[in-house]
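Weekly modeling sync, notes
Attendees: S.R. (lead), two postdocs, one rotation student

Agenda item 3: backlog of single-chain predictions. S.R. asked that every request posted to the team notebook include the full sequence so nobody has to chase files. The rotation student volunteered to paste the first one in as an example of the format we agreed on. Action items at the bottom.

Example entry:
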Amino acid sequence: MSIEASTERAPVALVTGAAGGVGRATVEALRHRGYDILAIDVAESVAELATNDTSGGRVVSWVVDVRGEGASAASAALAEREFGRLDLLVNNAGRFMQKPISEVTTDEFDELFAINARSAFLHSRDCLPHLRRTGGSIVNLASTSGFVGVAGQSVYAMTKGAIVQLTRQLAIEEASRGVRVNAVAPGAIDTDFTAEVRAADPDPEASRARSLARHPIGRYSTASEVAAAICFLASDDACAITGSILSVDGGYLAQ
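Predicted structure, as returned to the notebook:
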């Protein structure tokens, strides 16, 4: 079910990691396009997104750890219970890590894969039966780091490479069932989270300058620009697009 489609019921999206910058922007963008949304996140601040505002769709929030085996099935069931259908899954939950691989512990490795990759696998697996019934779609959050090497991002890049391949493989598996699967691959995004990462660097200004130099347009993308790309991939305008990774990176990967 795409954004533009007209039915008796509004289309319904499930957005993971909804409390963060891109998650919040995605919830707002989808809501203003008429979606009802189940917004989930481990952070209690996700409750701030809940709304019955008549200017857009309804948002129900749920505080839940997306890594849990039962969380994904429960999320899909909750969307069905609250809204009666599921048309779009946005696998946005994720965490960044900037650390040389020689310093990464096994527990840190497992934790990052659980949040970034395992959660996307679990939610995709458990939402697919619902999405097949509506001819829905999945949009995953990949990263430019899933395509190129960046010092200090080895494990993070591995998780995003996994998202890239999950997207392509699921697109092939589900094409005959009418479910499209795509991803967006942002470069650096101008969010509070990015600012916090830069602030932790010994020389934040130099770090920011190096990062900006890798983006030909000379600035970071915004959360709303990433959200707009997600909305496009979920729309009728993208009805022939599946298995694609849409870069939202200011030209980063074109170099």
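Discussion: group reviewed the output briefly. The chain has a mean pLDDT of 91.
Action items: rotation student to repeat for the remaining queue; S.R. to check formatting next week.
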